[in-house]
Amino acid sequence: MEAVDFQGQDVRFNLQQDIKPDSDKVSLREKISNYVQLTKPGIMVLLVLEAITAMIVAAKRETSLVAIVYLAIAGILASGGSAAINQYLERDKDILMTRTDWRPVATHQIAPKSALIFGIVSVAISLFIAQVAFNYVAMLMILLGALSYVFLYTLFLKPRTEWNIVIGGIAGVFPALTGWAAVTGSIGIPAIFIGSLVFLWTPPHFWGLSMKFKEDYIKTGYPMLPVVKTEKQVINWIVLSSIPLFVLSLLPALIPALGSYGLIYYVIAAAVAIPFIAVDIKMIRKPTRDNGFKAFLVSLPYMFILFGAMIAAAII
Q1: 227: how many CB neighbours lie within 10 A of its CB?
Q2: CATH number at residue 34
Q3: Chain centre distance of CA 261
Q4: Are 293 and 209 in contact (CB under 8 A)?
Q5: pLDDT tens digits, residue range 116-129?
Q6: Measuring CA to CA, which residue among 220, 213, 183 is closest to residue 64?
Q7: How far is CA 260 from CA 49, 196, 273, in A?
Q8: For residues 182 and 67, is the Cβ–Cβ distance under 8 A?
Q9: Residue 5 belongs to a domain
Q10: Which of 178, 97, 187 lies closest to 145, judged by CA?
Q11: For the chain, what is the total number of helices (H) and then of strands (E)?
Q12: What pLDDT shows up at residue 27?
């Protein structure tokens, strides 16, 4: 996912120096690779899949392949553009962290101004596509998603509160609302359900990661939960936040208004929760940083599998 990269570099750059690569020595392939990394492709894929899942759940077998393609393009541009703006805003912090010091804006592989322009133009094009291909409601959901990530999370919450991930996770709800609105022209309860799964998944996912890179956040001054709480307290919050996720994933079986997903979905949703619960138990017994990071690792495929199960249940 976006949040972790095991290709960290040992090189450190002077923030006061305007470091720019020699354009003659940067190949087209390298430039493309830099811009792909600028979009945070891991999280982008998840958000686009979330939107497509909501669209398919709304339309079921009537889903148009052309509509899926348009939604995917709009989602890639919106998510990628927002990520580019995020990297532009956090470039001076990113270079201080071993987890992010390789990012193309932090290392000036992409000039900050170029990243900002790329981000704004990408989001603008995504809004145009959403309005032309779908409707104004879908366009508005994309806009709100981008604004909540850039302004609410990146600029306001992240530097100010340890609950930044919890509140800022609202940005993860909007792709589902977009996908549903693209089909229906409105916001449905099942779309809110799908988006809420991502909202509840975000804290245990990211808190496990931030435990691993606690020193990074200390250097940047970001008040992430592991910075201001003990390891045991963070573990408790990871466990407490994961329980509602598991419950919500199965709740449509009792509340039909949340959507109809079929037996295949409930079987897979229950099965994919088992390793997560096993890690929760292990963390409670031994609340260490390494076990907290295991919560992050086990959460990586969770939403992908859950969305895959929803899609399968909708079209089979």
Answers
A1: 18
A2: 1.10.600
A3: 23
A4: yes
A5: 999 999 999 999 99
A6: 183
A7: 19, 16, 20
A8: yes
A9: no
A10: 178
A11: 15, 0
A12: 85
**Chain segment 198-245, per-residue pLDDT in tens:** 999 999 999 999 999 999 999 999 999 999 999 999 999 999 999 999
Write the DSSP symbol of residue 110.
Answer: S
How many domains does one find in the chain? 1
Q: How far apart are CA 293 and CA 279, in angstroms?
A: 10
93 in Cβ contact with 220 (< 8 Å):
yes
Question: For residue 3, how many other CB atoms are within 10 A of its CB?
Answer: 18
Q: 45 near 2, Cβ under 8 Å? A: no
* 11 within a domain of the structure (yes/no): no
What is the rounded (10 degree) CA torsion for 75, 147, 2, 78? 20
Amino acid in the structure at residue 63:
T
In a domain? residue 19: no
| Residue 14, burial from CB neighbour count under 10 angstroms (0-12, 13-18, 19+) | exposed
Task: Return the amino acid letter for 249.
Answer: S
18 located within any domain: no
Lookup: tokens for 302: 């969770």
C-alpha dihedral over 10, 43, 88, 212, to 10 degrees?
-40
Residue pair 217/225 in contact by the 8 Å Cβ criterion: no
Q: Tell me the pLDDT of the chain (316 aa) as tens digits.
A: 444 443 333 333 333 334 444 445 678 889 999 999 999 999 999 999 999 999 999 998 888 999 999 999 999 999 999 999 999 999 999 999 999 999 999 999 999 999 999 999 999 999 999 999 999 999 999 999 999 999 999 999 999 999 999 999 999 999 999 999 999 999 999 999 999 999 999 999 999 999 999 999 999 999 999 999 999 999 999 999 999 999 999 999 999 999 989 899 999 999 999 999 999 999 999 999 999 999 999 999 999 999 999 999 999 8
- At 315, the amino acid letter reads I
**Residues spanned by the domain of 148:** 27-315
